[in-house]
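Intended use. Records such as the Large ribosomal subunit protein uL16 entry shown here are meant for training and evaluating sequence-to-structure methods. They are not intended to support clinical decisions.
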Amino acid sequence: MLLPKKVKHRKWHKLRRRNKGIATRTNAVAFGSYGLTATTHAWISSRQIEAARRVITRYIRRSGKMWIRIFPDRPVTKKGSEVPMGGGKGAPDHYVVTVKPGTVLFELEGIPESIAKEAFTLAGHKLPVKIRFVKKN
Protein backbone atom coordinates (compact mmCIF):
# COMPACT_ATOMS: atom_id res chain seq x y z
CA MET A 1 0.00 0.00 0.00
CA LEU A 2 1.07 3.56 -0.67
CA LEU A 3 1.74 5.88 2.27
CA PRO A 4 4.15 8.72 2.94
CA LYS A 5 7.49 8.00 4.62
CA LYS A 6 7.36 11.23 6.60
CA VAL A 7 4.75 13.97 7.01
CA LYS A 8 5.10 17.56 8.17
CA HIS A 9 1.80 17.51 10.06
CA ARG A 10 0.32 14.33 11.53
CA LYS A 11 -3.29 15.54 11.47
CA TRP A 12 -5.00 17.72 8.86
CA HIS A 13 -8.17 19.76 8.86
CA LYS A 14 -11.07 18.31 6.92
CA LEU A 15 -11.49 21.44 4.72
CA ARG A 16 -14.69 23.41 4.22
CA ARG A 17 -14.54 23.65 0.44
CA ARG A 18 -14.91 19.99 -0.49
CA ASN A 19 -16.41 18.68 -3.74
CA LYS A 20 -15.83 21.89 -5.66
CA GLY A 21 -13.92 22.62 -8.83
CA ILE A 22 -12.20 20.53 -11.45
CA ALA A 23 -8.63 19.27 -11.68
CA THR A 24 -6.07 21.75 -12.98
CA ARG A 25 -3.05 19.50 -12.41
CA THR A 26 -2.58 15.85 -13.46
CA ASN A 27 -5.50 16.27 -15.87
CA ALA A 28 -3.75 15.09 -19.06
CA VAL A 29 -2.27 11.75 -20.09
CA ALA A 30 1.47 12.42 -19.81
CA PHE A 31 3.40 9.13 -19.73
CA GLY A 32 1.35 6.35 -21.36
CA SER A 33 -1.02 6.08 -24.31
CA TYR A 34 -4.23 5.45 -22.35
CA GLY A 35 -5.50 6.89 -19.09
CA LEU A 36 -8.18 6.39 -16.47
CA THR A 37 -9.80 9.71 -15.51
CA ALA A 38 -12.13 10.49 -12.61
CA THR A 39 -15.40 12.25 -13.44
CA THR A 40 -16.56 12.87 -9.82
CA HIS A 41 -15.08 14.09 -6.54
CA ALA A 42 -13.88 11.62 -3.90
CA TRP A 43 -11.26 10.65 -1.38
CA ILE A 44 -9.48 7.54 -2.63
CA SER A 45 -7.70 5.51 0.04
CA SER A 46 -4.38 3.72 -0.37
CA ARG A 47 -6.20 0.38 -0.12
CA GLN A 48 -8.49 1.26 -3.02
CA ILE A 49 -5.51 2.34 -5.15
CA GLU A 50 -3.77 -0.95 -4.39
CA ALA A 51 -6.90 -2.98 -5.25
CA ALA A 52 -7.23 -1.19 -8.60
CA ARG A 53 -3.52 -1.64 -9.32
CA ARG A 54 -3.73 -5.38 -8.69
CA VAL A 55 -6.75 -5.73 -10.99
CA ILE A 56 -4.98 -3.88 -13.80
CA THR A 57 -1.69 -5.82 -13.51
CA ARG A 58 -3.51 -9.14 -13.42
CA TYR A 59 -5.65 -8.32 -16.44
CA ILE A 60 -2.79 -7.08 -18.64
CA ARG A 61 -0.70 -10.07 -17.50
CA ARG A 62 2.28 -7.85 -16.64
CA SER A 63 2.76 -6.78 -20.25
CA GLY A 64 3.17 -3.11 -21.06
CA LYS A 65 3.88 -0.42 -18.49
CA MET A 66 1.62 1.18 -15.90
CA TRP A 67 1.87 4.50 -14.04
CA ILE A 68 -0.06 5.43 -10.89
CA ARG A 69 -0.57 9.19 -11.13
CA ILE A 70 -2.04 9.74 -7.64
CA PHE A 71 -0.46 9.38 -4.21
CA PRO A 72 -2.31 9.25 -0.86
CA ASP A 73 -0.68 11.94 1.29
CA ARG A 74 -3.67 13.18 3.29
CA PRO A 75 -4.03 11.61 6.78
CA VAL A 76 -7.51 10.65 7.96
CA THR A 77 -7.98 10.27 11.70
CA LYS A 78 -10.28 7.96 13.57
CA LYS A 79 -11.14 7.55 17.22
CA GLY A 80 -11.17 4.14 18.86
CA SER A 81 -14.38 2.19 19.26
CA GLU A 82 -16.54 3.10 22.27
CA VAL A 83 -14.55 6.24 23.06
CA PRO A 84 -16.73 8.87 24.77
CA MET A 85 -17.34 12.35 23.31
CA GLY A 86 -14.51 14.85 23.77
CA GLY A 87 -10.93 13.91 24.38
CA GLY A 88 -9.60 15.58 21.24
CA LYS A 89 -9.01 14.37 17.73
CA GLY A 90 -8.31 10.70 17.03
CA ALA A 91 -5.07 9.14 15.87
CA PRO A 92 -4.17 8.93 12.14
CA ASP A 93 -5.86 5.84 10.74
CA HIS A 94 -5.16 5.79 6.99
CA TYR A 95 -4.12 8.00 4.08
CA VAL A 96 -6.22 9.25 1.16
CA VAL A 97 -5.83 11.38 -1.95
CA THR A 98 -8.34 14.08 -2.86
CA VAL A 99 -9.53 13.52 -6.43
CA LYS A 100 -11.38 16.09 -8.52
CA PRO A 101 -13.12 15.54 -11.87
CA GLY A 102 -10.54 15.33 -14.64
CA THR A 103 -7.73 13.84 -12.56
CA VAL A 104 -5.81 11.07 -14.34
CA LEU A 105 -5.54 8.14 -11.92
CA PHE A 106 -3.69 5.47 -13.93
CA GLU A 107 -1.92 5.31 -17.29
CA LEU A 108 -1.01 2.36 -19.52
CA GLU A 109 1.43 1.95 -22.42
CA GLY A 110 2.40 -0.92 -24.71
CA ILE A 111 -0.87 -2.86 -24.87
CA PRO A 112 -3.84 -2.84 -27.28
CA GLU A 113 -6.60 -0.31 -26.67
CA SER A 114 -9.30 -2.96 -26.10
CA ILE A 115 -7.29 -4.63 -23.33
CA ALA A 116 -6.51 -1.26 -21.70
CA LYS A 117 -10.18 -0.27 -21.81
CA GLU A 118 -11.30 -3.53 -20.17
CA ALA A 119 -8.55 -3.35 -17.52
CA PHE A 120 -9.60 0.20 -16.61
CA THR A 121 -13.27 -0.82 -16.49
CA LEU A 122 -12.44 -3.58 -14.00
CA ALA A 123 -10.28 -1.19 -11.95
CA GLY A 124 -13.11 1.35 -11.92
CA HIS A 125 -15.26 -1.11 -9.97
CA LYS A 126 -12.72 -0.91 -7.12
CA LEU A 127 -12.73 2.90 -6.97
CA PRO A 128 -15.26 5.27 -5.32
CA VAL A 129 -15.38 7.58 -8.36
CA LYS A 130 -17.04 7.39 -11.74
CA ILE A 131 -14.38 6.91 -14.39
CA ARG A 132 -13.72 7.61 -18.05
CA PHE A 133 -11.23 6.03 -20.47
CA VAL A 134 -9.05 8.60 -22.27
CA LYS A 135 -6.38 8.44 -24.97
CA LYS A 136 -3.31 10.62 -25.36
CA ASN A 137 -3.86 13.53 -27.74
